[in-house]
Amino acid sequence: MPLEPASPEHPQLPRLENPIFRVILYFIGLVGVIIFTDVFAYQLLIWGGVLSETTLTGNPHLEFSPVAMLVLVSCRTVGVVLFTRWFCHRVEGRAWRTLGVDLRLGHLVQGLVWGAGLILVCAGLLQTLGNVTFRSGTSSAGVLMLYLLIFVFAGVMEELVFRGYILGTLMERMDKYIALGVSAFLFMMLHIFNPNISQLGTINLTLAGFLLGIYYLHQRNIWFSVGMHVTWNFVQGPLLGFEVSGLELHALYNPTLHGSDLLTGGKFGLEGSILLTVLMILAAVYIHFQFKE
Hints:
This protein is mainly α and 293 residues long. It has a domain at 100-291. Helices cover 65% and strands 3% of the residues. The chain has helices spanning 19-47, 53-58, 66-92, 105-128, 141-170, 176-190, 199-219, 223-239, 261-264, 274-291; strands at 132-136, 253-257. Helix 4 packs antiparallel against helix 10, helix 5 runs antiparallel to helix 8 and helix 7 runs parallel beside helix 10 (274-291). The longest helix is centred in the middle third of the chain and has 30 residues, at 141-170.
């Protein structure tokens, strides 16, 4: 019997009742999809002459060149989106839209503003305090566009997985704030092996998971979080030149840090700064009350 379309008022009930089991099953499948898409992406890069097998095996950080990174992240995102949609329909028997994927353009724009605003305020405070100075970088308009596309793909992929699927699924049988904490912890674990991560960096990544999830908690939609995720990374890295979760990128500006890593974030980027800790807490409280129904 074909599935009837779901509505926001009457969502389809999934065939598998235990949300924790479903999240584990989904995660296992997700790992397989990412491995497959990564292998496929590297083959595309080799076939296209972007890199050779020799340079690939000799440079473990090659994926962070803009072209290679775009191919890798776009392949991952397409694979994750297709797998997630298939998993919802075929394994769980529920509609794809129950993950909160219907576009809300106004909320997407708000998310874009929030993400850029938080990073700009943090950088502005550091500059005012004398902890950072900026000089012109080496990035070009073409490279900036590549990075923007990279972070659009990455934002959609990570928000679909961590907010749309994991948080949304856990909320079915679990207190929503506990579900938010679990999804935030898993989001932090995704970045735990990033270069130069600090103790404060792990705390801030967990807080970022709360910040990105608090909107979804009340609205059951991913697009505010997608917008925030995209501009957060893009402004922090390719525009201002800070490391993004420890990853160094080509940038429009080149910052020089002065003083304590506790304030500046050091080699991990602004996500290792105590200033961003405070800003994220304030932002999460505000967004909680803004979107709470």
